[in-house]
Every structure is written in structure tokens, then in C-alpha cells.
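Notebook entry, structure prediction.
Reason for the run: the old model in the group folder had no record of what sequence produced it. Starting over properly, with the input documented here first.
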Amino acid sequence: MQSGVVRKRGFLCIGGYEPIDAEWWYRRFERELKRFEATWNAQATMSPPVISEDSALAGWKIDTKGENWRTETEYRLLRWDDFVTADFARSDLERVPKGIAALLDFVFSGAAIRYFIVSVRYGFFFLYPFVILAGIVAAAIFAPKLLALLGLPIPGLVAFVLSIAVFVGLMYVLGRVLLLNYMFDDWIFAAQFVHRSRPGLDERLDRFAREIVTCAKDTSCDEVIVSAHSLGGALIMDVLDRALKLDPQLGQHGPKLWLMATGSSLLKVALHPKGKWLREAVARVADAKGIDWIEYQAIVDVISFYKVNPVVAMGLSERRNPIVQKVKIRDMLAPETYKRFWGNFFRLHRQWSMGNERRYFYDYYQVICGPAPLARRVANNKLVDCFASDGSYDAEAAARPQKRASA
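New structure, fully documented this time:
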């Protein structure tokens, strides 16, 4: 990569807690890639998706070119959507008590208090399901009393049955509309992960670790990026720690290896007292000589921790990694689009892996398909100025370091 232009890139992605299968992911990628082409005046083609025999991986190739550059990307999706799909299939009769138990685990363990200490915004996000659930319980309790106030008093047993019916009905409707069911499933999985009790998960994470080790040795690549979003930011720490055990020299005998975390929920798990094993894994990853780690954070993304160095927040001494940079999601989108998304916390959270409508130093598809090495993107937050309107890229200008956008 003497020219400062990435000719070939390996990109491995682990997503968050969503039941998105490989075909759906591919269609979204294809749609958002068109947005990238329009924003950066580039042209890109994708190969059909290929799914591994064990269904743990999916991948496709992207061939992207601008006026004076061309980059090939080997994209690999580290899949765990089948775990999420299985969770979504559980009945409310199972989901509600398990979800409440999982949330209370994070309360009584002291993790919830740590959320407020580290990030008040995330602390209030944690309270969201409690607020919705409390509202449903209150409605169920007061439904018979409301009828009595209207002059329709009902016997005790009937009132009890009515309350149960109101509770079940509101849970069914509001549980879906207000995403309470999703939140329950998400926290159940987080509790299983921190207690290391989810059947089949260890085998899947071992599979991911082997794939990373293999890709990190691909000398045909100029760089390899491991990308993690949301709860995937917690899983990837375990995966990279496993990869380091397979290859203690990971990232030191091949292309440059980066970990890129966006909207990470690492601390959601790592701040739990039972997450000591994960904190130890994070320390090893942060110390690894062959891995550079960039954390992108945004203030409007309340589902993650803003302006927080996760290594410091979990009580570890400050290390070389991670680099923390602030991103303004409003600058990635057209004003009317941002206005439409405002208040939709889940949609803003997903923007990390969507295409930009405006040129900005953070752009998921530029990181995947563009000519600039991630190291230069991190060092130069004016990199956007190195792309001309015709899509050409000034690699020499990109090599001049600028003030880092650190938190």
C-alpha cells in the first residue's frame, strides 16, 4: 500500500441484536451502497452472497472505483441472527418473566448504578422497559376502578380477571409497538452472555475467532477491519480474545488489523460484576500489539455510551487502545432526513451501518469500499476534503495528519 490507496481490503462485520438474516443484510447493503455511490460519485458492483455450510458466515465481494482509484473488498458477515430469531419465537408467557428477571439481575448486581455513573443517558435508556412495564401494570390495576368511577362497579373476581385481561392485552399490543418485547429479549440475551449460559454461543464465537485469524493472515489485503455494532461490540471482544489465544501474534504478520466499534454496547455487559471475564478479555485486546481499536460515538445514540473510554470506564488502567472519536449523525444525513429520524432512537442507532447522504469523515461504506486506509481516516478528520466532486481521491493530501476528533 505504498501509494496510500487500499487496493484490497478484508472487512468482517458482526452486527447487533437483530433478527436480520444474510439475505436481508445483503439487500440492505445493496440499497445503501447505491446511496454511497451517489454521495461520493463512485461506482460499485457486488457479487452474489455466499453462505458457509454451517451458516455462521456470509460474504460477498465489492468492486468499487472512483475517478483515479479502485478498491476490492472481501466482505464477511459474522452471523448470530439465528440466536436472535430463536429468542423472538418465544412466547410472551416465557418472555415477560425472563425479561423482568434479566433486568432485575442488572439492577440488583449494581450494574444499573454503574450505567448512571458512566453515562446518565444510558442509565435512562436502561429504565425505558421499566417505565413501559409500570405503565401497563398501572393501567391493569386501575381499569376496574375507572369503570367504578363511571358508575359500573364490578365484583372482585371479575375485576381481577379484567385486570389480567388488560395487562395481557396491553403487553401484546404495546409490547410490539413500543418494542418492549424486543427489549426483554435483548436483556435476556445480555444476561445469558454475561453469565456465559447461552447454549451454542461458545461454539459460534470460536468459529468467528478462527475466521478472523485466517483473514488476518491474508497478505493479499492491504488492511483487515473487524467491525462491531451495538451488542456486537461486546461479543467481538470475546471473539478477538479467542483469536489471540489461537494466534498470539494476531495482526503482526499480515495486513494492518483494525477493530472498529460503532454505537457499542460493550459496557452494557462489561459493567456487570459477573463480567470480570469480559473485562479481562478487553484488557488483553487493548494491549495486543497487532490490533488498533477505534471507537466511534454519537451523542444522539442513546443506546450506546457517549464520550466514554470503555477501558477506563470498566476500571482498567488507560492503555494504547482504544481511540475514541465523536461523530455527529446529523452531519451524515440531509436535514429533512435527520428531522424525520429525530426521536427514533433505534433508527439513529442503526445509522452507523447505513449509507451517508452527505459527505462526512465517518462513512460506513467509505470505510468498507473507499480507497483511504482506516489509519488515515482516524488520523485525519478532514479526509472528506481529499475527495473531489468527480470522485477522485488525493492520497497525498490525506497523508497529512490533522487534529484528531477525540472525545
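Summary: Residues 8-83+199-398 form one domain.
The old model has been moved to the deprecated folder.
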